[in-house]
Each structure stands twice: as C-alpha cells, then as structure tokens.
Design brief:
single chain, 16 helices, 77% helix, mainly alpha, globular
C-alpha cells in the first residue's frame, strides 16, 4: 500500500513543478544571499543613512541621485571610469589578448609555454600584490624610470603626472591573460581548410584576419568584451594600492568614489546610490554586448 502511494504521489504534481524541485535549494540561496542584499541596498540608496551621528535613517526619495549628478567629483569619477574601461579593457586587454592569441598560433611550443606562463602568472596574482608590483614599477624611483634613465630618456613621476594611464596599463598587464585564453580557444575552432584556402587565393595575413578570422570569432569577441568590461568597471584594489584615487581625484573611478563617500565620509545612503548607478552602467554595457551577440554573422 505504501509503495502504491509513493509511486502515485509524483504523478499528482505538474511536470513543471517536478522539474523545478531540484532547483529549489539553489533558488532559495540566491534569493537569500543575492537578491535580498541587492533589494536592501536599493532601499538604502533612497535614504539618508549614515554610519555615525544618526539615530535612524529617513526616506528621502531621489535626493541622493540628484546630489550625485550635481557633484563635480561624481561626474569626474564617471568620466574616469569610462576612460579607464575603454583604455584598459576595450583597447588594452581585448586587443593585446587577441594579438597574443594569434601570434601563439604560429609560435613554437617553448615560446607558447613561456609566454603563456608569464601572462597567466600576472592574471593569477592577487589584486593587491599586482598593485604593489605596478606601484614599484611606476613610482619616481621605480623600474620604469630606471630603464628610461639608462636609455638617457626623460623621466617623470608617472603616478602623479599620468595616474589614470598608469593604472590602466596595470590593469592591462594583469587582465590580458583572460582575453588571450578566450581568443586562443576561439581561434582553435576555426577550420584550417578555410585559412589554407584563403592563403592559396593570395590573401595576406591582415586580409585573412579582417575578412575571415574576426567574423568567425565575432561571438567570442562579444562575450569577451562583456566580461572584461564588467570586471574593469569593478576594479578597486589595484587602483587603491597604486594611487588611492589621487592625486586630486585624477584616478578616482566610481568604485573608489563610492568607497570614499560611504565609508570615509560615512554617507552610506549616498554611496549606495552611486553603487546603483555603477550597476546601471554595467547593465547598459551588458545590453549592448547581448544585442551584438544576437546579431547574425
């Protein structure tokens, strides 16, 4: 009798419910540890919550957002965030990763092993360690100025004169490995018959790259751009170790501006509003890349 009831019970449930049952624990965990904190942060962004000197927060609507768009420091952080993302992700990591992947296709095995080890080592280093290494490279008494001095070229304090370029280069150095691995996998999927036929027809390297390789790995390009853009928008530790957003806010991107407002100035509500705006920027980039991925080749 018990076996008959046990066999009949699952069939009494709708098929969609049965399929969703294995996902229930994961869904509950996501709601508890992901959706819950995001919803609470969204609420805080509309309050004047502070870390100190306040007994209870009050709801102030869109005041934090209006304050942000009137704040020159916030607008400067938005501009530097976009500049940092374009230089270090879209131009730096993406282009260099594709170039390394293409060159390693024709390189010998020892060269591939050496280059891969060097590039991936920079990627697996903790962000703080990479920040200290690049700080030592760019500081006035650092490695870069020592090389320039040995070559009898002018030196300067790179972290003071060109801080956003210095941290952009540091992010390129650290993150190029990811793009290289993505493009190496994509290039390996291109049939050799197609490239060999193009060579027989007299197509040079640049023409094969532009008319054959890039169109065939377009989806990998879109996926890579989306991932490295989102990673770059959230970079904090690397810039904090190298410049702390200075001098004078010349390298203060949105994550650093948000941290300063929320934890150094104790304005949690305002800092959370900035975090939501950063999330919106990342969402816009994601929608752009998703639209690119949906386009037919």
């Amino acid at each position: 009798m018990k076996r008959t009831v046990a066999r009949a019970l699952p069939h009494a449930l709708p098929r969609p419910v049965l399929r969703a049952l294995p996902l229930t624990p994961a869904t509950a965990l996501l709601l508890l540890f992901l959706a819950g904190p995001i919803a609470y942060c969204a609420y805080i962004a509309f309050t004047d919550l502070q870390l100190t000197g306040q007994a209870q927060e009050s709801f102030i609507g869109f005041e934090n957002f209006r304050t942000a768009f009137k704040d020159e420091a916030f607008l400067n952080a938005v501009w530097l965030t976009l500049l940092f993302t374009v230089i270090s992700a879209l131009l730096g990591q993406n282009t260099l990763g594709l170039a390394l992947a293409a060159l390693m296709q024709r390189a010998s095995k020892p060269v591939r092993t050496l280059v891969g080890a060097v590039v991936i080592t920079a990627w697996v280093l903790p962000e703080v360690v990479a920040g200290f290494l690049l700080y030592a490279f760019f500081r006035r008494e650092g490695t870069l100025n020592a090389i320039l001095d040995w070559l009898h070229l002018p030196t300067q304090n790179w972290l003071f004169s060109l801080p956003i370029l210095a941290v952009s280069f540091a992010n390129v150095w650290r993150g190029t490995a990811f793009s290289m691995l993505v493009y190496s996998a994509a290039l390996n999927e291109i049939p050799r018959e197609i490239t060999e036929a193009a060579e027989v027809d007299g197509a040079g390297g640049w023409r094969r790259m532009w008319h054959i390789t890039l169109p065939m790995i377009r989806r990998s390009i879109g996926t890579n751009l989306m991932l490295i853009t989102l990673q770059t928008l959230s970079v904090f530790g690397l810039i904090w170790v190298m410049t702390r957003g200075g001098p004078g806010g010349k390298s203060q991107t949105l994550p650093l501006f948000m941290y300063e407002e929320a934890f150094q100035k104790s304005m949690i509500g305002y800092g959370t509003a900035v975090a939501l705006l950063l999330l919106l920027v990342g969402s816009l980039f994601s929608l752009l890349y998703i639209r690119l991925l949906r386009t037919e080749v």
